[in-house]
Design goal:
19 strands, 205 residues, 34% strand, six-stranded mixed beta sheet, 13% helix, mainly beta
């Protein structure tokens, strides 16, 4: 058993690890552990490439995708996928040595609120041209450059706003109040407003 598999074996979630390269929808990619289902945590280990090559290739609500190998949206063999729409919020984590690759024709991904895509140090995103992420909630957009190295994070908050962070200290966790970064910013704005209010002598503590 690999160190990656051992790391998540005791998870309370159903952890499914790819055992060979291939399409996400093929059972032989996942081996005897069975295919991912709703509530699964998916692991793509080193030296394994898993492709989501059709719009129906990912129709389950998974907890997270932990990528140490390569996750491809689209396929170099089947070029019929022009854009990709995620059916559920996703939490995709690209770890050291891992790659997230866009192979869709139009390089457009439609994402839902509560989505987080995190590229850690040593991880990367690759595409033949910049990829546009579009919020299904309010059409907010953000762009992945054609080549990105971590740390880098994109989040979609509950209002559908897409935000990008290229600094590790800003890696975000979504909550019912938005991202950690949002809450910190609102708190600082409130403190600044309160300080200005006090200076005008309209407020007495």
């Amino acid at each position: 058993m690999s160190s990656i598999t051992r790391q998540f074996t005791n998870s309370t979630y159903n952890t499914i690890t790819a055992v060979q390269s291939g399409d996400f929808s093929l059972s032989n990619v996942w081996g005897s552990s069975g295919m991912p289902t709703n509530g699964s945590t998916v692991i793509i280990p080193h030296n394994v490439t898993v492709s989501i090559s059709s719009q129906t290739g990912l129709t389950i609500n998974i907890i997270s995708m932990r990528v140490y190998g390569t996750l491809q949206i689209g396929s170099s063999i089947n070029s019929s996928l022009t854009t990709f729409t995620f059916q559920y919020p996703v939490n995709i984590m690209i770890f050291k040595g891992g790659v997230l690759r866009d192979l869709t024709q139009n390089h457009r991904w439609f994402v839902l609120s509560n989505t987080i895509i995190t590229i850690y140090n040593g991880g990367s995103f690759i595409s033949s041209q910049p990829t546009t992420l579009i919020s299904n909630t309010n059409n907010s957009t953000a762009t992945f450059n054609s080549s990105i190295s971590g740390p880098y994070t994109i989040t979609v908050d509950l209002q559908g706003k897409i935000q990008k962070y290229s600094c590790k200290k800003n890696l975000s966790v979504l909550s019912k109040y938005g991202t950690v970064h949002d809450r910190f910013r609102r708190k600082k704005n409130f403190e600044r407003m309160l300080s200005n209010f006090r200076k005008t002598n309209y407020f007495h503590s």
